[in-house]
Amino acid sequence: MSGRLVHVGSAVVDYVYRIDALPAPGTEKTASSYARVAGGGFNMMVAASRTGMRVVFGGQLGTGPDGDFLRTAFAAEGIATLTPPSPLMDSGNCVAMISGDAERTFVSWPGAESRLTLDMMKPVQILSGDWVFTSGYTLSYPGSRDALTDWIEALPAEVPFVFDPTPVIAEIPRSILDRVLARTTWLSCNTNEAAEIVGSGDAQTVAIRLLADHCQRAAGVVIRAGAQGCLVRLADGRTQAVPGFDVEAIDTNGAGDAHIGAFVSGLSRGMPPRGAARYANAAAALSVTRHGGSSAPTDAEIQEFLARRVQAASAQDREQEATT
Fold it and tell me: In this structure, what CATH number is given to the domain that contains residue 69?
């Protein structure tokens, strides 16, 4: 049985509008659909939970309708909240516009998740076997980043800490980012976020720089490349390119969250890094074939997907042998 995932990032309410294309400045669009859903860190937590990991939330939820909405969503997924509701404000929200090409544009409003103190985090007690995760969003908020960074640095040395810098990485002060990277056990980021840390270059060169210059205590880094899959660079020098899966994407929102949650869940259950990365690629591939940010698949769905891909590859190999 794997340990818990203790998520100390942010969760918000997403207001999702589906449109054919983004409106031009000064114009208006009518959405084809609208939904109010739990988002932010909730998507990663769902991915880990649905793939067999026990998940608890150690961040801040607010007092108000959005905080209540998130608590209900957490309970439905079996995710316990370790901290009491913030008395300061409601939880934040994000407007997500999903265009016809499956891409998305966000406008966010920070709430209770943007205010954090060490006293607020006292109820978050780390147990043997736990994994800890945070994202760049909480570190981008002036009212939360200092306390969270101090808390991360105080984690016991044996506790694995996973970090996803997210698209807001440029808003994280470099001094904060450097401290968090120095404590990171596994870094998962996309190609743009990796380049923001170390500069441009091919994925392998960037991964080498990340480990050598920024994540010197890390077991490895994962650089995600969307449909192309990901590259895993391990501290022992091995580099493993793990190809993605060809699927028809209808909504890429939450694909990175699905990848990270499934990857951590796989590692926690003893999968080798390459196996966990392939498992995560499958989770992300399945998630983009469904609407919604919290569209991560279950372990059974991932295993069935992978089995079908193996069968299809074997059938293709047999056809090729028959024609040679």
Answer: 3.40.1190.20
